[in-house]
Amino acid sequence: MRETAIIIKEKIKPKNPVLIVGLPGIGLIGQVVARYLAEELKGKRIADLYSPHFPHQVFMTKKGGMRLIKNKFYYMTGKKRDIVILSGDVQAISSVGQYEVSGVILDYIEKLHIREIITVGGYSTGKINDKRRIFGVATSLELKKDFEKLDVLFGSARGSIVGAAGLLPALCKLRGLRGVCLMGETHGGYVDIISAKSIVVLLSKYLNFKIDFTKLDKKAKESEKILRKVEEEIEKSTIMPYKPGEGSPSYIR
Amino acid sequence: MRETAIIIKEKIKPKNPVLIVGLPGIGLIGQVVARYLAEELKGKRIADLYSPHFPHQVFMTKKGGMRLIKNKFYYMTGKKRDIVILSGDVQAISSVGQYEVSGVILDYIEKLHIREIITVGGYSTGKINDKRRIFGVATSLELKKDFEKLDVLFGSARGSIVGAAGLLPALCKLRGLRGVCLMGETHGGYVDIISAKSIVVLLSKYLNFKIDFTKLDKKAKESEKILRKVEEEIEKSTIMPYKPGEGSPSYIR
Amino acid sequence: MRETAIIIKEKIKPKNPVLIVGLPGIGLIGQVVARYLAEELKGKRIADLYSPHFPHQVFMTKKGGMRLIKNKFYYMTGKKRDIVILSGDVQAISSVGQYEVSGVILDYIEKLHIREIITVGGYSTGKINDKRRIFGVATSLELKKDFEKLDVLFGSARGSIVGAAGLLPALCKLRGLRGVCLMGETHGGYVDIISAKSIVVLLSKYLNFKIDFTKLDKKAKESEKILRKVEEEIEKSTIMPYKPGEGSPSYIR
Amino acid sequence: MRETAIIIKEKIKPKNPVLIVGLPGIGLIGQVVARYLAEELKGKRIADLYSPHFPHQVFMTKKGGMRLIKNKFYYMTGKKRDIVILSGDVQAISSVGQYEVSGVILDYIEKLHIREIITVGGYSTGKINDKRRIFGVATSLELKKDFEKLDVLFGSARGSIVGAAGLLPALCKLRGLRGVCLMGETHGGYVDIISAKSIVVLLSKYLNFKIDFTKLDKKAKESEKILRKVEEEIEKSTIMPYKPGEGSPSYIR
Fold this sequence. Notes:
The structure is a homotetramer.
Chain A: E1 5-8, E2 18-21, H1 29-40, E3 44-50, E4 57-60, E5 66-68, E6 71-76, E7 83-88, H2 95-111, E8 116-124, E9 134-138, H3 141-149, E10 153-154, E11 160-162, H4 164-173, E12 178-186, H5 193-207, H6 216-237
Parallel strand pairs in A: 2-7, 2-8, 8-12, 9-10
Antiparallel strand pairs in A: 1-3, 3-6, 4-5, 6-7, 9-12
Helix pairs in contact in A: 1-5, 1-6, 2-4
């Protein structure tokens, strides 16, 4: 495998679909939201994305299997609109990798006739109140207006968005697609379930679906545990393999 | 997006055109000059350049929009010659990226029948007088002679030029184009408005245009502020994403 | 050479073949096993793999020759099944390199109609008993059952496998091939001959071959010596070439 | 420019030719030998090699020009055999770059029907006598025998050869060409003119040319001075451009 590739597990013809992207990032908000939606709305896994820009290691499973590091696409039908969700273990680590992975994702969703992308992330404000605000930036006036009606704050967030949460909506504009990034206000130093929940509520209003929130807390803790494990393992592969350690032979890795 | 690409916004047929390049560099002279010319001469934006060799992040705008990191081409007509200006947020960070971006720029300007390239940069001499000198290096005897008449010093600068200011005129020679790099003498430790102005004056003589200098000071301060902000944000994306920080969970990025 | 390439030395048409992979890794178990099998079973060298993702240096031989860093394929016929062995000096150092090399290996073995891959590695448990356990992870239920019958423990190992030992069986699943990674329990801090031997015994049962174990100890020590030498040399090439050292001119490299 | 490229300045049809390669390396022996031969034997420049794997900067010349970092090919006719010489400012810095550059060089010389490659380097033995030994490693028995007759020691040098001096003869074997690396014994800590001279003498015997040695000392000092300058400049471009320095704005570079 020399380039990022998507392995399609099931072909779909979604109805007026939207892509929701939640990958590891600030406060783990995106990932908690995406994993929770995929599970609670009983999303069907339709495709996996693999990339040489992900770490070169596999995870062992409890049943004695193993799996590559990947990103996953889920699909669920809705009343008015169908939803595709992108979730995953990691984001590509280099700029070249991030641009390549984003390009492959956009190629795929264009084939599914998806013309709207919502990425979910966190926005660290240092101090937070009980009621978390949601900040937005959009590449489409239409999307901006829709989310402003749902109390998302546009023009308040400052600075930059690192990684897929920013790249995907910005790049999709070059293809004539609509994109918005929704950022839950968060402290930045821990997994923020309250903020994640506020985004799930927002999306349920925007996309008109019903969802049970009782398991969100449990799910978020599970997400955090998984990611910590994932990161701990990835850390191992970034140790320079040919650099001899102190007191132990260098071929031990 | 897997390779550097130029998105053309408007097709032009320039008359005996010259490309002026001013990207971030020593003393910020190139960028101040390019941005000032583009604004004061009312340049029309004709193309944007995007690259996977730029940082993988987007900037949020005041109006709640977002934009990719990019380089921009402007176009303005002149009495005798038309001018195309290349300005931008960043330069590619790696050698491979620098060569790729330069190649894409030269492909584009060749299509516009541009056969002359002027890059603008700074040259740090440590100590400076009120009257800043301008140093030049050229790949064309004709250009050298023209700028020598305008008091540019050839053969005085020593050492090397890092990045696009050097690569573009040197690479364009391989394609049979003329190139010169004009370097404003500068201290090196701050944005040098006096040196930038001296180059704007030089270019106005060489290309025979009139320009108001009253706003240069304000513009330069604005340029500095923007670049500081850009760099501050880019800094964030270069923090190793999988490296756990001290006292904060490693997935926070 | 711009991409990983396999140079075929001899064409073979193996009978119901299996690939056994043993490259440098934890406790050097994989490499000791692969080299020992190749030598004791009188494997014939059928192909060499070269890669720009291996270090850019060559080894000098005792006879005044030199050779590139490489991976090697050996072939031996068996009663029921033929065996192909992959051994080598190094693994690719980057993720992009690891994925490319794995892809080239899988392309090659598919051409040989190999549909089963066994990678051998080590699994560090910190403390070890005289009787080393063997852990397994598989991408095929069939392989898992076969090795469970031979006392390999599935579902006990935790975490991740870095490099080719994990990537090859995981990637081969995407091509419809069967894969298993066998990991010898080991301390992690030294070459583990006992653990390597236990895997050779396991493979002799699984593949139904007879093998003399008397030379394993000597072979393992030789393997360790060679690898230490290889790593010592590779270390030299990773010193930044343009970084001046202290007290010696910077062009010395 | 996205890939390493050779710009041909003059087409030649050499007679039974040999390639001699001398690039920056241990004791600067290769570079001193190659530059001296090219100048004393009045070599004609026939081609330049450029690469995105070389540093992204240009050197300013005394006459107010500038030039890209490059490698250069020279050509000279001989009584029995013609000679092509490869010399240059730098070697590619990464493994991927080294393999790409070597591949492009071999493609070019194959087109010139060159079937023999001699690379020149240094071999650090720590302590040295007045009479420097010359060590050799070859990929051709024929070449080995020829140089053994001229007192080159085969089988004495140990370890590895980093960079083009090793990669080129090793890779050329895969193409059916003959290759040898000649290493002048040297201390390792300074430019070794005595060792360089011993290799020039050796090559004059092997290739049957006459050469004046009186200017070698002067030439070697010049080579050292140039390379120090080159390295000093390259050092500048490897400073991380987006990393803010202490006490000075980060855009200053």
